[in-house]
Design brief:
This protein has 289 residues and is mainly beta. Helices cover 9% and strands 30% of the residues.
Protein backbone atom coordinates (compact mmCIF):
# COMPACT_ATOMS: atom_id res chain seq x y z
CA UNK A 1 0.00 0.00 0.00
CA UNK A 2 1.30 3.48 -0.86
CA UNK A 3 2.77 5.57 1.91
CA UNK A 4 1.20 8.70 0.37
CA UNK A 5 -1.86 8.54 2.61
CA UNK A 6 -3.49 9.98 5.73
CA UNK A 7 -5.14 7.96 8.47
CA UNK A 8 -8.08 9.62 10.21
CA UNK A 9 -7.64 9.28 13.97
CA UNK A 10 -10.47 11.65 14.95
CA UNK A 11 -13.07 12.50 12.33
CA UNK A 12 -14.75 15.30 14.28
CA UNK A 13 -18.39 16.39 14.06
CA UNK A 14 -18.41 16.60 10.26
CA UNK A 15 -15.28 16.49 8.13
CA UNK A 16 -15.61 16.13 4.37
CA UNK A 17 -13.40 16.18 1.29
CA UNK A 18 -14.00 19.31 -0.79
CA UNK A 19 -12.55 21.01 -3.84
CA UNK A 20 -14.01 23.60 -6.23
CA UNK A 21 -17.09 21.44 -6.77
CA UNK A 22 -18.81 20.06 -9.85
CA UNK A 23 -20.57 23.00 -11.55
CA UNK A 24 -22.29 22.51 -14.89
CA UNK A 25 -24.35 19.42 -14.04
CA UNK A 26 -27.57 21.02 -12.77
CA UNK A 27 -29.40 19.73 -15.86
CA UNK A 28 -28.65 16.23 -14.53
CA UNK A 29 -29.92 17.10 -11.06
CA UNK A 30 -26.39 17.27 -9.62
CA UNK A 31 -25.62 20.14 -7.20
CA UNK A 32 -22.43 22.15 -7.38
CA UNK A 33 -21.06 21.21 -3.94
CA UNK A 34 -17.44 22.20 -3.14
CA UNK A 35 -15.85 24.10 -0.25
CA UNK A 36 -18.34 26.47 1.40
CA UNK A 37 -15.58 28.99 2.19
CA UNK A 38 -13.81 28.84 -1.17
CA UNK A 39 -11.26 31.62 -0.44
CA UNK A 40 -10.13 29.84 2.73
CA UNK A 41 -9.72 26.52 0.90
CA UNK A 42 -7.74 28.24 -1.87
CA UNK A 43 -5.48 29.95 0.69
CA UNK A 44 -4.71 26.66 2.44
CA UNK A 45 -3.78 25.11 -0.91
CA UNK A 46 -1.48 27.99 -1.83
CA UNK A 47 0.31 27.73 1.51
CA UNK A 48 1.34 24.10 0.85
CA UNK A 49 2.15 24.59 -2.84
CA UNK A 50 -0.95 22.90 -4.24
CA UNK A 51 -2.93 24.13 -7.24
CA UNK A 52 -6.11 25.92 -6.21
CA UNK A 53 -8.27 23.03 -7.47
CA UNK A 54 -6.65 20.43 -5.17
CA UNK A 55 -9.00 18.69 -2.72
CA UNK A 56 -8.80 19.67 0.96
CA UNK A 57 -10.58 18.66 4.16
CA UNK A 58 -13.42 20.85 5.45
CA UNK A 59 -13.96 20.47 9.21
CA UNK A 60 -17.00 21.62 11.16
CA UNK A 61 -16.94 22.97 14.73
CA UNK A 62 -14.42 20.68 16.44
CA UNK A 63 -11.72 19.91 13.86
CA UNK A 64 -10.13 16.49 13.32
CA UNK A 65 -7.04 14.37 14.01
CA UNK A 66 -4.86 12.99 11.19
CA UNK A 67 -1.76 10.78 10.98
CA UNK A 68 0.26 10.82 7.71
CA UNK A 69 2.12 7.69 6.59
CA UNK A 70 4.90 9.83 5.11
CA UNK A 71 6.16 13.32 5.87
CA UNK A 72 3.80 15.98 4.52
CA UNK A 73 3.32 19.73 4.61
CA UNK A 74 -0.07 20.91 5.85
CA UNK A 75 -1.78 24.26 6.34
CA UNK A 76 -5.00 25.11 8.17
CA UNK A 77 -7.11 28.12 7.16
CA UNK A 78 -10.72 29.25 7.50
CA UNK A 79 -12.04 29.31 11.06
CA UNK A 80 -9.14 30.04 13.47
CA UNK A 81 -8.28 27.07 15.68
CA UNK A 82 -5.47 25.49 17.64
CA UNK A 83 -3.09 23.30 15.62
CA UNK A 84 -0.70 20.79 17.18
CA UNK A 85 1.75 18.13 15.99
CA UNK A 86 2.26 15.31 18.51
CA UNK A 87 0.92 17.63 21.20
CA UNK A 88 3.24 20.54 20.38
CA UNK A 89 1.60 23.80 19.23
CA UNK A 90 2.00 24.59 15.52
CA UNK A 91 1.01 27.72 13.60
CA UNK A 92 -2.42 28.23 12.09
CA UNK A 93 -2.49 29.87 8.63
CA UNK A 94 1.06 28.81 7.74
CA UNK A 95 2.83 25.75 6.25
CA UNK A 96 3.62 23.09 8.87
CA UNK A 97 5.84 20.05 8.31
CA UNK A 98 4.33 16.89 9.82
CA UNK A 99 6.66 13.86 10.07
CA UNK A 100 5.54 10.37 9.10
CA UNK A 101 3.46 8.83 11.88
CA UNK A 102 3.03 12.07 13.80
CA UNK A 103 -0.44 13.14 14.96
CA UNK A 104 -1.77 16.37 13.48
CA UNK A 105 -4.55 17.72 15.67
CA UNK A 106 -6.81 20.42 14.26
CA UNK A 107 -8.73 21.86 17.19
CA UNK A 108 -12.17 23.33 17.66
CA UNK A 109 -13.03 26.55 15.86
CA UNK A 110 -12.45 29.53 18.16
CA UNK A 111 -14.64 31.69 15.96
CA UNK A 112 -16.54 30.69 12.85
CA UNK A 113 -17.54 27.14 11.91
CA UNK A 114 -15.35 25.58 9.23
CA UNK A 115 -11.59 25.10 8.99
CA UNK A 116 -9.77 23.86 5.89
CA UNK A 117 -6.85 21.45 6.00
CA UNK A 118 -4.66 21.32 2.90
CA UNK A 119 -2.01 18.60 2.55
CA UNK A 120 0.86 18.72 0.06
CA UNK A 121 -0.24 16.75 -3.01
CA UNK A 122 -3.94 17.14 -2.20
CA UNK A 123 -6.50 14.55 -1.11
CA UNK A 124 -6.51 12.06 -4.02
CA UNK A 125 -9.80 10.19 -3.62
CA UNK A 126 -11.39 9.15 -6.92
CA UNK A 127 -13.24 12.03 -8.62
CA UNK A 128 -16.94 11.77 -9.49
CA UNK A 129 -18.11 13.91 -12.42
CA UNK A 130 -14.79 15.72 -12.32
CA UNK A 131 -14.79 16.56 -8.61
CA UNK A 132 -13.63 14.94 -5.36
CA UNK A 133 -16.17 16.87 -3.28
CA UNK A 134 -18.51 15.22 -0.81
CA UNK A 135 -22.11 16.18 -1.59
CA UNK A 136 -24.30 15.64 1.46
CA UNK A 137 -27.56 16.06 -0.48
CA UNK A 138 -27.01 13.73 -3.43
CA UNK A 139 -24.48 11.38 -1.79
CA UNK A 140 -21.95 11.84 -4.59
CA UNK A 141 -18.26 11.80 -3.76
CA UNK A 142 -16.62 10.21 -0.71
CA UNK A 143 -18.73 9.86 2.46
CA UNK A 144 -18.00 12.12 5.44
CA UNK A 145 -14.90 10.95 7.26
CA UNK A 146 -15.09 8.40 10.05
CA UNK A 147 -12.41 7.27 12.49
CA UNK A 148 -10.06 4.87 10.73
CA UNK A 149 -10.65 6.21 7.21
CA UNK A 150 -7.51 6.17 5.05
CA UNK A 151 -7.23 8.94 2.46
CA UNK A 152 -4.80 8.67 -0.48
CA UNK A 153 -2.63 11.69 -1.24
CA UNK A 154 -1.32 13.03 -4.52
CA UNK A 155 2.31 13.85 -5.19
CA UNK A 156 3.59 17.24 -3.98
CA UNK A 157 3.97 19.97 -6.56
CA UNK A 158 5.36 23.44 -5.87
CA UNK A 159 7.50 24.45 -2.91
CA UNK A 160 5.28 25.52 0.04
CA UNK A 161 4.84 29.26 0.50
CA UNK A 162 7.46 31.04 2.62
CA UNK A 163 5.35 33.46 4.65
CA UNK A 164 5.24 34.93 8.14
CA UNK A 165 1.60 36.01 8.03
CA UNK A 166 -1.24 35.74 5.54
CA UNK A 167 -4.20 38.08 4.98
CA UNK A 168 -7.30 36.67 6.63
CA UNK A 169 -10.85 37.93 6.94
CA UNK A 170 -12.15 36.74 10.28
CA UNK A 171 -15.51 35.00 10.70
CA UNK A 172 -18.38 37.53 10.76
CA UNK A 173 -19.88 38.93 13.93
CA UNK A 174 -22.69 40.21 11.73
CA UNK A 175 -23.60 38.95 8.27
CA UNK A 176 -24.55 41.40 5.50
CA UNK A 177 -25.80 39.61 2.39
CA UNK A 178 -26.25 41.64 -0.79
CA UNK A 179 -29.26 40.37 -2.71
CA UNK A 180 -30.81 41.05 -6.10
CA UNK A 181 -34.64 40.77 -6.08
CA UNK A 182 -36.28 37.99 -8.06
CA UNK A 183 -37.07 35.87 -9.87
CA UNK A 184 -40.26 35.39 -7.80
CA UNK A 185 -40.36 38.62 -5.79
CA UNK A 186 -43.79 39.29 -7.36
CA UNK A 187 -45.14 36.37 -5.29
CA UNK A 188 -44.65 38.51 -2.15
CA UNK A 189 -46.34 41.62 -0.81
CA UNK A 190 -44.68 45.02 -0.87
CA UNK A 191 -44.42 44.86 2.92
CA UNK A 192 -42.57 41.52 2.65
CA UNK A 193 -39.96 43.10 0.41
CA UNK A 194 -39.57 45.97 2.89
CA UNK A 195 -39.22 43.45 5.71
CA UNK A 196 -36.50 41.56 3.84
CA UNK A 197 -34.58 44.82 3.30
CA UNK A 198 -34.94 46.23 6.82
CA UNK A 199 -35.59 43.49 9.38
CA UNK A 200 -32.97 41.86 11.58
CA UNK A 201 -32.61 38.09 11.17
CA UNK A 202 -30.35 35.57 12.88
CA UNK A 203 -28.65 32.40 11.68
CA UNK A 204 -30.63 29.35 12.76
CA UNK A 205 -29.02 26.29 14.35
CA UNK A 206 -30.78 24.24 11.64
CA UNK A 207 -28.37 25.58 9.01
CA UNK A 208 -26.04 23.19 7.16
CA UNK A 209 -24.11 22.82 3.88
CA UNK A 210 -27.42 22.78 1.98
CA UNK A 211 -28.73 26.08 3.25
CA UNK A 212 -28.37 28.85 5.80
CA UNK A 213 -31.70 29.05 7.62
CA UNK A 214 -32.75 32.22 9.37
CA UNK A 215 -34.87 33.19 12.36
CA UNK A 216 -36.86 36.40 12.19
CA UNK A 217 -40.07 37.93 10.88
CA UNK A 218 -41.88 35.88 8.23
CA UNK A 219 -42.31 37.22 4.69
CA UNK A 220 -45.91 37.56 3.59
CA UNK A 221 -46.95 35.97 0.32
CA UNK A 222 -49.09 37.83 -2.22
CA UNK A 223 -49.71 34.64 -4.18
CA UNK A 224 -50.87 31.69 -2.11
CA UNK A 225 -50.99 29.03 -4.81
CA UNK A 226 -48.48 26.30 -5.53
CA UNK A 227 -45.36 27.03 -7.56
CA UNK A 228 -44.22 24.34 -10.02
CA UNK A 229 -40.72 23.06 -9.27
CA UNK A 230 -38.09 25.14 -11.07
CA UNK A 231 -34.35 25.51 -11.23
CA UNK A 232 -32.42 26.86 -8.22
CA UNK A 233 -29.05 28.61 -8.30
CA UNK A 234 -26.34 29.05 -5.68
CA UNK A 235 -27.33 31.87 -3.31
CA UNK A 236 -31.08 31.62 -3.95
CA UNK A 237 -33.15 33.01 -1.06
CA UNK A 238 -36.04 30.59 -0.94
CA UNK A 239 -39.04 31.18 1.31
CA UNK A 240 -40.72 28.00 2.64
CA UNK A 241 -44.22 27.97 4.17
CA UNK A 242 -43.02 29.33 7.55
CA UNK A 243 -41.98 32.56 5.76
CA UNK A 244 -38.36 32.60 7.02
CA UNK A 245 -35.73 33.05 4.29
CA UNK A 246 -33.32 30.20 3.52
CA UNK A 247 -30.09 30.96 1.63
CA UNK A 248 -29.03 28.06 -0.59
CA UNK A 249 -25.37 27.04 -0.18
CA UNK A 250 -23.11 24.61 -2.05
CA UNK A 251 -25.09 21.38 -1.54
CA UNK A 252 -28.46 22.95 -2.40
CA UNK A 253 -30.98 21.08 -4.57
CA UNK A 254 -31.05 21.94 -8.26
CA UNK A 255 -34.84 22.42 -8.28
CA UNK A 256 -37.39 23.60 -5.74
CA UNK A 257 -41.06 24.40 -5.40
CA UNK A 258 -40.99 27.38 -3.00
CA UNK A 259 -40.67 30.91 -4.42
CA UNK A 260 -37.24 32.60 -4.54
CA UNK A 261 -37.56 36.20 -3.43
CA UNK A 262 -33.93 37.16 -4.17
CA UNK A 263 -30.43 35.83 -4.90
CA UNK A 264 -27.33 36.53 -2.77
CA UNK A 265 -24.18 37.77 -4.48
CA UNK A 266 -21.70 34.89 -4.75
CA UNK A 267 -18.92 36.95 -3.14
CA UNK A 268 -20.90 37.09 0.13
CA UNK A 269 -21.43 33.33 0.49
CA UNK A 270 -18.00 32.54 1.99
CA UNK A 271 -18.90 34.70 5.01
CA UNK A 272 -22.20 32.83 5.28
CA UNK A 273 -20.21 29.59 5.52
CA UNK A 274 -18.57 30.82 8.74
CA UNK A 275 -21.62 32.36 10.43
CA UNK A 276 -22.39 30.52 13.68
CA UNK A 277 -25.98 30.10 14.95
CA UNK A 278 -27.25 33.36 16.41
CA UNK A 279 -25.16 35.56 14.10
CA UNK A 280 -27.19 38.66 13.06
CA UNK A 281 -28.13 38.68 9.37
CA UNK A 282 -29.15 41.69 7.28
CA UNK A 283 -30.21 41.50 3.64
CA UNK A 284 -29.01 44.46 1.59
CA UNK A 285 -31.12 44.83 -1.55
CA UNK A 286 -29.04 45.73 -4.61
CA UNK A 287 -31.00 46.38 -7.78
CA UNK A 288 -30.11 44.76 -11.06
CA UNK A 289 -27.38 46.45 -13.07
Amino acid sequence: MTDRALSVVRAGALTTVQDQGRPGHAHLGVPRSGALDAPAAALANRLVGNPVEAAVLETTLNGCGLRPRSAVTVAVAGAPCAVAVDGRPAPWGAPVRVPAGALLDVGAARTGLRSYVAVSGGIAVDPVLGSRSTDLLSGLGPPPLTDGTVLPLGHPGDVPARVDVVPHRGPPTGLVLRVTPGPRDDWFTASALRTLATAAYRVSSASNRIGLRTEGPPLERAVSGELPSEGMVLGSVQVPPDGRPVVFLADHPTTGGYPVIAVVRTADLSAAAQAVPGTPVRFLVVRRR
